[in-house]
Design brief:
This is DUF393 domain-containing protein. It comes from Hydrogenibacillus schlegelii (Bacillus schlegelii). This protein is an alpha+beta fold and 116 residues long. The chain has one domain. The chain is 39% helix and 14% strand. The protein is built from 5 helices and 4 strands. A hairpin with a 2-residue loop joins strand 1 and strand 2. The longest helix is centred in the C-terminal third of the chain and has 12 residues. The chain is globular.
Length: 116
């Protein structure tokens, strides 16, 4: 997902880091288990930091990536209906994660979300 965010970040607002290679998530009070379970965003809100996880982080990403703006009303509707978090959780629990350095000869074995 990080590569997609970098490609769609026309405004240069995102700094995407891999929690496998950068443990700064702990500076924000997040555990490895939390960042392994779901995506998180950290935003400066005045003098405070706003940390969102899961579907709320997806909404933040959609809000700040102009190419994805057409999806934002649909995502807000999913949140309003209570389906967004449920669908996100299902996706997160079944996603494939490709860890840097795990690829050999152009082939990367996928690792299921929480089972690492």
């Amino acid at each position: 997902m990080g590569l997609w965010i970098r490609c769609l970040d026309w405004l240069g607002l995102f700094r995407v880091t891999s929690y496998h290679e950068d443990a700064r998530f702990a500076d924000y009070g997040l555990s490895f288990e939390a960042v392994n379970r779901e995506i998180h965003t950290v935003r400066q809100r005045g003098t405070r930091l706003q940390i969102d996880g899961g579907f709320e982080a997806v909404l933040v990403i959609l809000k700040y990536l102009p190419p994805l703006w057409p999806l934002l009303p649909f995502a807000v509707l999913l949140r309003w209906l209570g389906l967004g978090p449920v669908l996100y959780r299902r996706w997160a629990e079944n996603r494939r994660v490709f860890v840097g350095g795990a690829c050999e000869d152009g082939s990367c074995p996928g690792v299921r979300g929480r089972k690492r």
